[in-house]
């Protein structure tokens, strides 16, 4: 049998269109591949029959997307009709959504095949892929190390040859961090460029659906499939489709590099790099965690044991039902964040923490906007340090939270960013996905 994992997603799409391979054949290959990374929570049992239907529509000329017939893995906090969507939590262990997220609707419309749902940190809270109810995700590059989080399963699946492409979500780095730890590309789009409808909310003002792929061209095509205004998400915006045919040149391009970012790749390509300091950098992670936890405490209040999700069997009163259902079904990281969120929103602390964090967010936006007036991109590390060993991080949560300090810049400001396998990221102006992805392709084409 052909080893389909060596081909890019676009190449697989081309092979399907040329009749060199079929969608059911490719889907079956990925579906049956042993998941030795704990990357998937659920596989789509109907994937092959869905691929057969898609194959016919490709042959009849009805489906023309370059990715038609190509399988894709979807993070388990993105709703898929008829397929369990657990957020890697006991709370949603048996939740089967009655509808598809808009991003998933668009995947299906273009003829991509949903391979399965990928493992993640519970409710997307974490940086290592270890806080899952279903156990830690392993890093395909080194099984003793974490995959990164929270979209660890998506990153491991793509890097480990278990899926050609994947969707993740990025609230504070969750696409870029695991992508970098596993050696693939990750795109965190501009806030609103991809509809959030059907993405189970963590921190709504920061949440984005992102893409993960082995190469920038695959990421661009997947972004094109899912992006654009959605009437059902009032925060979504229209964006131009990314055109990867134009070449990108780094010659004399001004890039602002934050301290600690390795600029050698961009230097070699002729970019004009200047090191800058963001005066607010030390406040970025604290502001992010205050805002994210505040929003999470409100978003997760809906899991009350009554409407949907886990319900405790031993409760005798209404209050007990709330308390027991939530105590029994949320894991420690989620509980900690709900408590922190409620604390920073409580009277007396609201002004001291939450409002201050919002001010920092605004000031950071002004500072970053001013930099992007002068420079084409901001270059930053993805994380502080490389992928930790499994079991190392949860014992020192503050260190883990701090390691997100560079990633959260793009979320707090709503700007797009692309992460490179070597562990750096470029942050661009709003809706500059095309420039970012073409820049990534130029790096990739030069074999760096
Ligand atoms: N590590 C960050 C957090 O734990 C990012 C999460 C995310 O982007 N979903 O909140």
The quaternary organization reads as: single chain
Please list the strands of the largest sheet in the order they lie side by side: 1-3-2-6-8-7-12-13-11-9-10
Separation of the first and last Cα atoms? 32 Å
Task: Please give the number of β-strands.
Answer: 13
Shape: globular
Number of separate helices: 15
Q: Briefly note the structural class of the backbone.
A: alpha/beta
Description:
With 448 residues, the chain is of the alpha/beta class. It has helices spanning 9-18, 23-32, 47-59, 102-109, 152-159, 176-182, 216-226, 264-268, 281-299, 318-329, 332-345, 350-374, 397-402, 407-413, 433-445; strands spanning 40-43, 71-75, 113-118, 138-139, 142-146, 165-169, 185-188, 209-213, 254-258, 272-276, 377-381, 417-419, 424-427. The strands form two sheets. Strands 1-3-2-6-8-7-12-13-11-9-10 form an eleven-stranded mixed β-sheet, sandwiched between helices. Strands 4-5 form a two-stranded antiparallel ribbon. Helix 2 (23-32) runs antiparallel to helix 3 (47-59). The protein is globular, with a radius of gyration of 21 Å. The model has no long low-confidence stretch (mean pLDDT 97). Bound molecules: glutamine. Residues 124-127, 150, 169-174, 202, 292, 404 line the site of glutamine.
């Amino acid at each position: 049998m052909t080893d389909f994992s060596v081909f890019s997603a676009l190449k697989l799409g081309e092979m399907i269109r040329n009749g060199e391979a079929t969608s059911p054949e490719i889907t079956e290959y990925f579906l049956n591949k042993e998941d030795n990374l704990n990357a998937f929570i659920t596989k789509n049992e109907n994937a092959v029959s869905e691929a057969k239907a898609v194959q016919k529509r490709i042959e009849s000329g009805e489906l023309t997307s370059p990715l038609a017939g190509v399988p894709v893995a979807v993070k388990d906090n993105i709703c898929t009709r008829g397929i369990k969507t657990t957020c890697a939590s006991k709370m949603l262990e048996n939740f089967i959504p009655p509808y598809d997220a808009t991003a998933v609707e668009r995947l299906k419309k273009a003829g991509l095949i949903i391979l399965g749902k990928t493992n993640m940190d519970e409710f997307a809270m974490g940086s290592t892929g270890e806080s899952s109810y279903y156990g830690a995700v392993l890093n395909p590059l080194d099984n003793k190390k974490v995959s990164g989080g929270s979209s660890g399963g998506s990153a491991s699946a793509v890097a480990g040859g278990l899926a050609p492409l994947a969707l993740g979500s990025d609230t504070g780095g969750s696409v870029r961090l695991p992508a970098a730890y596993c050696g693939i590309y990750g795109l965190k789009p501009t806030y609103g460029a991809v509809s959030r409808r059907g993405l189970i909310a963590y921190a709504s003002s920061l949440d984005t659906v992102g893409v993960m792929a082995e190469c920038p061209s695959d990421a661009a095509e997947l972004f094109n499939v899912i992006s654009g205004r959605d009437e059902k998400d009032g925060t979504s915006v229209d964006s131009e489709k990314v055109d990867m045919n134009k070449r990108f040149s780094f010659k004399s391009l001004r890039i602002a590099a934050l301290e600690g970012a390795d600029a050698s790749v961009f230097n070699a390509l002729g970019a004009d790099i200047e090191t800058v300091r963001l005066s607010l950098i030390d406040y970025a992670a604290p502001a992010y965690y205050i805002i994210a936890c505040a929003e999470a405490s409100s978003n997760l209040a809906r899991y009350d044991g009554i409407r949907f999700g886990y319900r405790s069997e031993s409760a005798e009163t209404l209050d007990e039902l709330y308390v027991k259902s939530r105590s029994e079904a949320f894991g420690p990281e989620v509980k900690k964040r709900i408590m922190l969120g409620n604390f920073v929103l409580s009277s007396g602390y609201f002004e001291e923490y939450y409002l201050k964090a919002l001010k920092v967010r605004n000031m950071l936006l002004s500072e970053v906007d001013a930099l992007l007036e002068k420079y084409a991109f901001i270059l930053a590390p993805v994380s502080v340090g490389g992928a930790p060993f499994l079991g190392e991080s949860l014992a020192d949560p503050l260190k883990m939270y701090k390691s997100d300090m560079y990633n959260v810049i793009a979320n707090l400001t709503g700007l797009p960013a692309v992460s490179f396998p070597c562990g750096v990221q470029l942050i661009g102006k709003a809706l500059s996905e095309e420039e970012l992805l073409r820049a990534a392709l130029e790096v990739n084409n030069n074999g760096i």
